[in-house]
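OP here, attaching both records as promised.
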Amino acid sequence: GPMAEIKDYFKPEFAKGLTQGANSDKFAIDSFTSGAAGKFIALYGLDELIDSIPDTIKEFQIQNRDSKNVIIHIPESFGRFKNLETILFDNCIESLPESICELKKLRFIAVMNNKKMKTLPECTATLPYLTFVNADKSENFVLPKSLQEKQPQKMGEGKIKKS
């Protein structure tokens, strides 16, 4: 529409505003259709949004609270968030990329309400600090055998749990 040519000019500043403030190490989306993140997605798309997030974030959350059954694809580039400790995907994915195994600081993986989600990549068993997996209400989810067999003393601070 009108002024579409300035869209790219404002993109970096718009994206930066999504992770600034008191929780600048946290990125969260509660809706794909409203709020600042929803507007960014409408203008630029989800992949552009993920590419615009600073590499330094520690927490990444996407919760689909909309009534629509939106399934998003998490790109392989997700492995660039080397400081991530927590990821949460609620009602929005069917798989996670192998690149999550590059997130060596990851402690918590939550994949709740993802009816099409079947499992995590096997390589998640190599994550040194992973202590908790929550797959509540993801009926088809099975914890990878490599995580089921992981010994508690080799799992960072505690046990892997499927809630």
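Record two, same layout:
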Amino acid sequence: GLDTTITHGPTGLVGMDIESETGAAFAFTSNDLGVVFQCALDGEAFAECESPAVYSGLGLGEHIFRVRAVRLDEAGLIANVDPTPARWYFTVVPAPATTIDSGPVEGVNTGPNATFRFSSSVSGSTFECALDLGPFAACPSPYELTGLADGEHMLEVRAVSPLGIVDQTPEEWTWVVE
């Protein structure tokens, strides 16, 4: 019989960034080449769609994506429908927004040490820091840097929520050590 398979979709938890539209994309196939597809998100009615199907502006909470293959007859009418639509469950959770609350003031002779404090819009978040475009690594708040070389420096900080969602837009702080 007619069968539909979802080959790609969002894994588990999807972080919703307050500043951007949260989207999800799904790819799917059928065991029959001569078909069209119908998709439905959450409780919506099935409507014709193509792979990949992309949805944006998803709200917080649990979602279900359904897709089914439909075989049309020569007149373009539905001749056969996959009786068991493929289903994909996923949950949208808040993505953390990172704020650097304090750090060395630019234009002041800061010396080789600097202390930063940062916060996240999602309580219980941890933080990752990257100095001078280096790799991100776990860091506490307050975060103390010592022995910095003279010149301009940049610290990037990103929050990681307790559910493991990473802020996709790290905060940056630049300053000069003289």
